[in-house]
Design brief:
It contains four helices and nine strands. The protein has helices at residues 2-20, 94-109, 173-184, 212-223, and strands at 23-28, 79-82, 118-119, 128-133, 139-144, 150-154, 160-161, 171-172, 200-201. β5 and β6 (150-154) form a beta hairpin. The model is unreliable at 1-21 and 29-68 (pLDDT under 50).
């Protein structure tokens, strides 16, 4: 009986680990008021506390394979859309949010044209489904690797900005969306603070261009043969 129970427990534990690997949460850093006009946010300190717990074992290294837990999309075009029940962030209208999300997808398509992204409605029928919803206070969003494709952005305690420069207490929507889209395409976090796929996004900052590392990783995932 003890041996049978042990096998069942081990099987359940392995299944838990496998399912957990498909979810990736993305943090913002602790918020503090600006001390002067030049310092509008508190930068993350680079410790393990800044890394989402579900990816502590998956930090990117140039010496390891780029392939990730969730695989990749094996189709073209890849569709995306908003869940029909999704509200919009306070102070932002639907058209402006759609414009920013479209731009975020185009940033990734520029380096992997085969994505051929298409936005559809209702989003429930899309490969990547976007929803503004309440997320844990530690995070501004979370996403799932392919073929799940769910992308959730916080609407409760995160103040999203679509301005050229977000305020000291705001998060840039384009930067956050680009990061979460990267997960839905199959990329996990990186320890490179300059990359879009770094797990934290500082208040009042922008990260709207893919780093060379981001480009290398996504192209390796979709173009390299293994």
């Amino acid at each position: 009986m003890g041996i049978k129970f042990s096998h069942q427990f081990n099987g359940a534990f392995i299944m838990f680990v496998v399912l957990q690997s498909f979810l990736v949460e993305s943090r913002h850093v602790k918020l503090e008021p600006p001390h002067n006009q030049e310092q509008g946010h508190r930068k993350s300190n680079g410790t393990s506390d800044d890394i989402a717990p579900s990816t502590l074992d998956g930090l990117y290294s140039s010496k390891i394979n780029y392939n990730l837990y969730g695989g990749k999309w094996y189709k073209s075009p890849v569709t995306y859309g908003f869940d029909s029940t999704s509200p919009m962030p306070s102070g932002l209208n639907y058209e402006d949010v759609i414009y920013v999300i479209d731009e975020a997808f185009q940033k990734w398509q520029a380096v992997v044209p085969e994505f051929a992204f298409q936005r559809i409605y209702p989003g429930e029928d899309a490969d990547i489904t976007i929803l503004f919803t309440t997320v844990s206070t530690e995070y501004y969003g979370y996403s799932y690797y392919p073929p799940d494709g769910r992308l959730h952005l916080d609407i409760d305690h995160t103040y999203w900005s679509i301005e050229s420069y977000p305020a000291w207490n705001e998060h840039d929507l384009l930067s956050g969306a680009m990061h979460e889209i990267g997960h839905t395409l199959g990329l996990m976090h990186t320890s490179n603070r300059d990359a879009v796929m770094y797990p934290t996004l500082d208040y009042g900052t922008i990260k709207r261009e893919l780093s060379q590392e981001d480009i290398d990783r996504i192209q390796s995932l979709y173009y390299d043969e293994y």
